[in-house]
Specification:
The protein has about 280 residues and is an alpha+beta fold. It has 2 domains: about 130 residues, no CATH class; about 140 residues, Umud Fragment, subunit A, CATH 2.10.109.10. It is built from 5 helices and 12 strands. A hairpin with a 5-residue loop joins strand 11 and strand 12. The radius of gyration is 24 Å and the shape is elongated.
């Protein structure tokens, strides 16, 4: 929910800033339509153009497996998007080609500023988007589904947690939090006990919780049903909703607090699965 509020606030702020910059730059080159409300209309239309090209890009990227093909398509779409925005600004402010470069330049400068803010403030400290790389959370989150991770809120039990794996080539995965630092866990007959108290699991996990995925080779088994698992002061126990195949804390051991990225609180891709999850 907080990520959605961030997104709405940032979008509104971006619209206002873009509207002001477009109107101001259009007035500077003599446009009689260089008013804020005209700039706001142009900014809103540009937002719709950006969304449209994003959807087009996502659809086309899935059709090309080669990175160079995807890069070429991305460059082509970016150029096409700039041409469409230029034509929109020219018509909206009734400017000649030469004078249209003033609001176009203001738009590009503001867009670059927003990118810098996103890279150096939003992503490191507030929110960041990720792509699910595996089937460990199916069907809740499928491979290539996209979600937003909030880095501000504190994780709670059953939250969807993004974390860095401890593999040789680390990746960000998303799994469900069932055990918090300092707690004692016990898997027993498909249920989970926390500090010797039965805790009701979400529907996706109810009655299916076991200490090891079914069919796990003996050499990979860390825990047994009925065995107590004591978490350290900085350890979290995570499991995937696809319990039968998920390589989670039952296989790899608890995750250290330093590996936690944040709480997934918004799923946004594909559009049919868009929902607030926290």
């Amino acid at each position: 929910m907080i990520s959605l509020c961030f997104f709405i606030a940032i979008t509104l702020l971006s619209l206002v800033a873009t509207a002001w910059a477009l109107a101001w730059s259009a007035r500077r080159v003599g446009s009689l339509r260089g008013r804020f409300r005209v700039g706001l209309l142009a900014a809103f239309l540009i937002l719709l153009i950006n969304i449209s090209f994003t959807f087009i890009g996502e659809g086309m990227a899935r059709s090309f497996a080669e990175p160079m093909q995807a890069l070429a398509i991305g460059v082509f779409l970016l150029i096409a998007q700039m041409v469409v925005v230029f034509a929109l600004l020219k018509r909206t402010f009734k400017l000649c080609n030469r004078r249209t470069f003033a609001p176009m330049g203001a738009f590009i400068a503001l867009a670059l500023l927003q990118v810098v803010l996103a890279l150096f403030i939003l992503r490191p400290f507030l929110v960041e988007a990720f792509v699910m790389p595996s089937k460990g959370m199916s069907p809740t989150i499928e491979p290539n589904d996209r979600f937003v991770v909030n880095k501000v809120i504190q994780p709670k039990r059953w939250d969807l947690i993004a974390y860095w794996s401890s593999d040789r080539n680390p990746m960000v995965y998303c799994q469900r939090l069932i055990g918090l630092p300092g707690e004692q866990l016990r898997f027993d007959q498909g249920e989970i006990y926390i500090n010797d108290k039965l805790v009701a699991a979400p529907a996706a996990l109810a009655g299916r919780l076991h200490a090891s995925p079914k069919g796990t080779p003996e050499r990979y088994v860390l825990f047994q049903d009925g065995e107590s698992i004591m978490l350290g002061d900085n350890e979290f126990f995570l499991v995937g909703d696809n319990l039968e195949i998920s390589a989670d804390s039952r296989i790899n051991g608890p995750s250290d607090a330093s590996s936690i990225v944040g709480v997934a609180d918004l799923m946004y891709w594909p559009p049919s699965k868009t929902q607030i999850v926290r």
